[in-house]
Predict the 3D structure of the following.
Amino acid sequence: MTYLRRSNVSEKKSRLATLGIVALFVVLFLVHYFFPRFYPSVFLPITSLFAKSESGFTGWIGNMARVASSKYSLVKENDGLRREIASREASALLLNDLRTENESLKALLGRTGEGHDVLGVILSRPPMSPYDTLIIDIGSVDGVEAGDKVYAEGDILIGDVAEAYAHQSKVDLFSAPGRIIPILLGKSGVQIQAVGRGAGNFSARLPVEIGVEEGDPIILPQIRPHTFGVVEKIMVDSSDSLQTMLFKAPANINEIRFVEVDIDTRVD
């Protein structure tokens, strides 16, 4: 029995493959030679399809980029609008504050009555200044002296000048704890003494037979009468012949920004 060697088989396969490739190129050449339009008619549609696909993909990428850019522009524009709105709101608040301040100043400067008043700005108040005292920006060069009466909101007496410096003054409020102030009950006209409790609050003790009700006005016994407070609460103990009355000043010390000092109605 005769066997073929492996090397001969491999060589034979290699030669056949080479002959096949040569034959393919010969056939392709002959087709192109005798039919020159054959290859363009076959491969042109395929290349056009790939070109269209590439163009479509490129266009899709471009559209996505334009959408992303448009979204970024919208976000940026919205941020700008929000900042503009916030700025306008802040400006509106400032304008409203200035308008309120202007109205307050007009009311203060338009106050009628006897005496000459000097307008002052509150520089510090509790807790920045000692309890129930104010520091204002007018002093002796403006004609202010110790003992001058101090008003808030036009005609509400809140205290007096304790010390007058050149350009500033210290004001003691009547509501300072333990300070005693003579007052008149609005309806009855009975004069009693009120004691300061701090922060614009007062208390007073009076006989139970004196009629007093919540909401009654409290005035000061002066030639120029001023509302000093309004009765807020009355406490009666059945075992006591006295009743306790609580009231507070009409002006909120924590909210006022300006005061007036009466420099013309002094007691010599």
Remarks:
- The first strand starts at residue 117 and ends at 124.
